[in-house]
Amino acid sequence: MLGACLSALRRVRVTQGSPLLRVLLVAGVFTYGSHSVLTNLSKGDDGRVAYNVASVVLMTELCKLLISCTLALLTLGTRGVVGEVRAGAFKPRFFLLLSVPALLYALNNNTAYYAQQAMDPVSFMVLCNFKIITTAILFRLIMNRSLSRNQWLAMPILLFSSILNSMAGLAKHSSIVDESAQDTNILLKSALYVSPYGLMLMVMYCTISGFAGVYAEYVLKSRMHASLHMQNIPLYLCGVVMNATAYFWSSSSTNAVIDDTALRLSHSATSLVWMLGPFARLFDGYNGWTWVIILTQAGNGLILSVVMKHSTNIVKLFMIALSMLLSTATSILAFDMSLSWEFVLALVLVLWAIALYHTPAPASSAATMSTGPARPVAHGAAAAFGESDQQRSLLPFVHKQGYSGMLKQV
């Protein structure tokens, strides 16, 4: 039975427009859309999370690494994994290239957690749509991919809708602070709010997300023949190292851990705490919702890697837009939120911008869209692999499919 299951698993292939890719896209909508809601559910009675957010990101990266290693062994077998390694799957220059998106994703994941604590889940998902603008601009600058008139028109509409929602949130922010609380950052869960600090984090989050997505898509597609799981291993390994470093610096010192914990333990346990340092309190403040966040975000990361390898960042943005609707519906039900007219108008404009952005360009407009070579960043990445740009370029994939062709996958 086990052998038959492994044989069936090894025959599974994800391709453009395949039913499995559609299933993964739907699953991605649910996992991505549940993130902000789950983060709010994991908060305590004071409206704060009791755990170190850097530890959650670290555990998420570790889960993705373990799952990728397991899937690589199950789908390729030991001989297949050895063959991939001999073919150069773990070359130092490949690790170096993947360390760039790993660093950006590590920074972005931590930024997302802190941003969600500075705003309500609905506002977070609405403002996340800025990634459409940053991704499109960076895709144009780095990959030399032009956009149609409708797609450029969608950007100011999306910008206006996001600003409208943010201003409405800022207005509510001053009126919903619990005046009896000593900390003015403690906000009522049932209201829409966005702090100035949250806006700053969202600008940073969307910019990094756009560049990391475009760059990671290029790196994954640069070796289309390679196993995605083998490509993910160095990516997530770099992510584990970088997030472990981030957790170390965000945690208390070893002396503080010992003063607070180890002195109450036996001599052998105290020695263990000395060796572990800040990692001795890795799971402090965790609850059931925390583990749900870790598992869902690990699954979401793996799904996004499949989408970027076998589809594009544009389809990923479409998936994120759908998750916004899911997050809005669940937030209203879970937190009994009241929607203002500003937010309703902003939501309508966001949906209009998304629809306009994904409208297929007319034939005359599509014919004039740029098909030039990739920018220096893409050329540099291709050269680092030691193969020609023609072998590495993802532009033929994008231009052959077009936006309408890619959206048929959804």
Automatic annotation (TrEMBL):
This protein's UniProt keywords: Membrane, Transmembrane, Transmembrane helix
Membrane topology field: Multi-pass membrane protein
Entry's Gene Ontology molecular function annotations: pyrimidine nucleotide-sugar transmembrane transporter activity
Primary localization: membrane
Subcellular location(s) of the protein: Membrane
InterPro entries, alphabetized: Nuc_sug_transpt (IPR007271)
Transmembrane segments: 20-38, 50-74, 94-115, 121-141, 153-171, 197-220, 232-250, 288-307, 314-335, 341-359
This protein's GO CC annotations: Golgi membrane
Pfam families, per the entry: Nuc_sug_transp (PF04142)
Signal peptide annotation: none
Keyword Membrane applies: yes
Designated name of the protein: Uncharacterized protein
Phylogenetic classification of the source organism: Eukaryota, Filasterea, Capsaspora
